[in-house]
Amino acid sequence: MAKEAAGMTEETEYMIDRQVSKEADTAAESSGDAKEMRAVILSGFGGLNKLRVSRKPMPEPQEGEVKIRVKACGLNFLDLMVRQGAIENLPKPPLVPGFECSGIVESVGENTEGFEIGDRVMAFVNYNAWAEVVCTPAVLVHKIPDEMTFAEAAAFSLNFVAAYMMLFEVANLRDGMSVLVHSAGGGVGQAVAQLCSTVPNVTVFGIASCFKHTAIRDSVTHLFDRNADYTQEVKRDITCDVKYKCAKKPCFSSLSFAILCYLSLLFLMFVFLSGASNTVTGETKSFFSFAKSWWQVEKVNPIKLYEENKVIAGFSLLNLLFKQGRCSLVKSVMDKLLCLYNQKKIKPVVDSLWALEEVKEAMQRIHDRGNIGKLILDVEKTPTPLMASDSTETSETGEEEEEPEGDNDSKERMPFIH
């Protein structure tokens, strides 16, 4: 009996070990089937310490969607506002930021037409762009020319479509008009300047920091320092221009985040709306900066607009796409822009390339107003070693720990300047 009991015990242990081994193999197979990707995660609204690169499940395309293996992502000032929670109707964190990317079509969902695996594309994305893989509706995806790099494509879609629609759909830019461009050294500012050059006899007044003047001087007609009182200078140039071309009506568009169109020959009055860049002065949202900017904005009287033949218009490309569903209108604009690109009349300006892990330093460069053109997150780029310790630390449990506010000043990466 003892021998029989011992035999049963050994057999039981063998069966248990076999079952455990089988379950382990099954778990390993299931974990291998669950594909993951790297993505930038915004864990909460606030400073740069709220951003980190982590792994998350890879999305699969739904009906009518395109799955894109991302090569490059655009980094916009709007992304800084999202990080700070400075705009309305934001999704609840944690979330993956980013609204535009470029890459290669990896697969398509059911009933998706117009794209094949291997197509080089750029796309608008309703968040989730800062990742190795994105899925987005086919109506938001556009093929890119063979000559266009992925970095240029990521710098093209939002900037040039927004600039084109503000100039030609909203401000009705035409021969002989003048355009005043705030932040002329940025991605949108350079897009506006280039598009203005496609219309005869358009005068472009650019406002930018002094250190950018040498780089952008050829893209504008007149250039002024953003820290100087340029109002009188611009007024004087406008008056001379009107006297010299008395048959032409001056039209000025202030392209920060609002368009200011001045359609009167007699009333050359200037109303400057403070752009959102003036409210985002630090890492986190500042009520005092917002209040100061609001107080400094000249108040607009609707009756005066009527009496002086002035127009004030706002424009949001993202709302046009994701809330109003005007994808066909945006596609027609994109077709026109790609035609101009193929004719070598426009070309996106890329400031620098950054790895996903360098997103904090890239955002800091925008905070510092150091960029000339567009900053790009290069998904395949290897992070440059930090001069100091890494911006993310690993805890004893193997999880990334967020750094305290203010620690970013002691760390710096060297970007690849395009």
TrEMBL record:
GO terms for molecular function: oxidoreductase activity; zinc ion binding. It comes from the Eukaryota. Belongs to the zinc-containing alcohol dehydrogenase family. Quinone oxidoreductase subfamily. Residues 46-377 form the Enoyl reductase (ER) domain. The lineage of its organism: Eukaryota, Metazoa, Chordata, Craniata, Vertebrata. This is Vesicle amine transport 1-like. Pfam families: ADH_N. Residues 382-418 are annotated as: Disordered. CDD domains: MDR3 (cd08275). The chain crosses the membrane at residues 255-276. PROSITE patterns: QOR_ZETA_CRYSTAL. Residues 396-407 have a biased composition (Acidic residues). Coiled coil: none annotated. It comes from Cynoglossus semilaevis (Tongue sole). Residues 408-418 have a biased composition (Basic and acidic residues). Keywords: Membrane, Oxidoreductase, Transmembrane, Transmembrane helix.
